[in-house]
Amino acid sequence: MLNLSSYIYVLFILTTLSAIFIFYKAAGSTKKVFGIIAAWMLLQSLVSSTGFYANTHSLPPRLLLLLMPPVAGIIFLFATVKGRAFLDSLDIKLLTLIHIVRVPVEVVLFCLFINKTIPQLMTFEGRNFDILSGLTAPFIYYAVFVKFNGSRKMLLLWNIVCLALLFSIVINAVLSVPYPFQQFAFDQPNIAILYFPFVWLPGIIVPLVLLSNLAAIRQLVWSGKINKSVSPA
After folding, report:
1. Could you tell me if residue 233 is inside a domain?
2. In a domain, 20, yes or no
3. DSSP summary character for residue 60
4. Cα separation, 100 vs 136, whole angstroms
5. Taking 70 as the threshold, does the pLDDT of residue 16 lie above it?
6. What is the pLDDT at residue 149?
7. Is 194's pLDDT higher than 90?
8. Alpha carbon of 21 to those of 86, 110, 134, 200: distances in Å?
9. Is residue 1 domain-resident?
10. Helix (H) or strand (E) holding 153
11. Is the pLDDT of residue 21 over 70?
12. Spatial distance between the Cα atoms of 141 and 223, rounded to a whole number of angstroms
């Protein structure tokens, strides 16, 4: 476990719980969704507490066991009829608001950088512009869903930009972990995400916001029901 101030842990845990709660509500407060996320969260808490992910010399990288199951789950949702039905049932308003959690995430990342557990490039002082997604989320929500003077195209474009920003920081973060394939930040590698509770960032928060972007894009492009709440122009 990293030797950090307690407020960093508290802020990150509250941010994670907020992301889970918003997605849970977006899914219609479905107990099955909550159960899957809670079980995954508990499993990764136990595994990371043993220092399992801190071993960066094993091949294949142990971090894959944290990253790949959520990715496989998202692929499954898009590849199956029931999965696509679930995606189309999600509340797009809450799928928009969930991105507000990207602001406290950036605050936590900056604190981790100050404490020399992640590189500067992972913060808004470096290459990470993901905070823009969180800062703009309330305004997009207000423009599209409150005043209804925003358009479906605006919401679609915003989600695509948010998706691009997410992919950018994920790639930089992964290539900053002290593995044999590390490409960046050799002076201060990305080690925080290898420890509890920060494994929840790549294991829970990133998959939830990724799925929220992808599900919103799917609804905006393919689902006709969105026309009732968002102007098409």
Report:
1. no
2. yes
3. S
4. 8
5. yes
6. 62
7. yes
8. 17, 24, 16, 14
9. no
10. helix 152-174
11. yes
12. 19
Phi then psi for 145, rounded to 5 degrees?
-105, -20
The 3-class SS string of the chain reads: CCCCCHHHHHHHHHHHHHHHHHHHHHCCCCHHHHHHHHHHHHHHHHHHHCCHHHCCCCCCCCCHHHHHHHHHHHHHHHHCHHHHHHHHHCCHHHHHHHHHHHHHHHHHHHHHHHCCCCCHHHCCCCCCCCHHHHHHHHHHHHHHHHCCCCEHHHHHHHHHHHHHHHHHHHHHHHCCCCCCCCCCCCCCCCCHHHCCCCCHHHHHHHHHHHHHHHHHHHHHHHCHHHHHCCECC
Host domain of residue 100:
6-228
Give the C-alpha separation, 142 to 100, whole Å: 13
Q: CA nearest 230: which of 123, 124, 155?
A: 155
pTM: predicted TM-score of the whole model, two decimal places: 0.92
CA 83/CA 61 separation, integer angstroms: 29
225, pLDDT greater than 50 = no
- Count of domains for the chain: 1
Q: What is the DSSP letter of 27?
A: T
In a domain, 72, yes or no: yes
Is residue 23 pLDDT above 90, yes or no? yes
